């Protein structure tokens, strides 16, 4: 029996016939201390943030888990109207609740970047970022 194709939802991963519901990811804006309506005067400025991603249960390869974490990170950036300024560095916390920690620099997207990336509108983003 083939399972129907499900839409991709943040925090939900399909594994064989089992749906694994993961806790919601913390806000990158909150972790970086970037207020929703903040304006950064220089696009080169950003804040370093460490974003935790709860690893999937089972024997899935580490490479696949890293790819899933990066995909969820991209979704999170898009939903919060942020862009990455650095390539994420990865570390792993082992244990009962194993977690991949992705450390990167983020900043609010300029209006042009937001349009290109299809970001969801953020409150107070009408002013945008000074170019």
List keywords for this structure.
131 residues; alpha+beta; four-stranded antiparallel beta sheet; two-stranded antiparallel sheet; 3 helices; 6 strands; disordered C terminus
Structure, explained:
This protein starts with 11 loop residues before the first strand and ends in a 14-residue tail after the last helix. Strands 3, 4, 5 and 6 form a four-stranded antiparallel β-sheet that branches. It has helices spanning 28-32, 62-80, 111-117; strands at 12-15, 18-21, 47-54, 82-84, 89-93, 99-108. Residues 127-131 have low confidence and may be disordered. The longest helix is centred in the middle third of the chain and has 19 residues, at 62-80. The chain is built from three helices and six strands; from the N terminus they run ββαβαβββα. By secondary structure, it is of the alpha+beta class. Strand 5 and strand 6 (99-108) form a beta hairpin.
Strand content: 25-35%
- What Rg is obtained from the alpha carbons, in whole angstroms? 16 Å
Low-confidence stretches: 127-131
Termini distance? 54 Å
Largest sheet: 4 strands, antiparallel
Total helices: the number is: 3
């Amino acid at each position: 029996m083939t399972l129907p194709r499900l839409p991709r939802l943040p925090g939900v991963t399909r594994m064989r016939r089992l749906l694994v519901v993961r806790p919601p990811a913390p806000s990158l804006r909150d972790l970086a201390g970037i207020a929703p309506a903040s304006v950064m005067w220089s696009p080169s400025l950003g804040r370093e943030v460490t974003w935790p991603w709860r690893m999937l249960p089972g024997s899935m390869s580490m490479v696949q888990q890293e790819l899933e974490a990066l995909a969820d990170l991209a979704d999170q950036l898009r939903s919060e109207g942020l862009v990455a300024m650095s390539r994420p560095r990865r570390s792993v916390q082992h244990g009962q609740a194993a977690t991949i920690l992705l450390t990167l620099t983020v900043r609010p997207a300029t209006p042009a970047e937001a349009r290109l990336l299809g970001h969801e509108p953020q409150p107070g983003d009408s002013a945008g970022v000074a170019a």
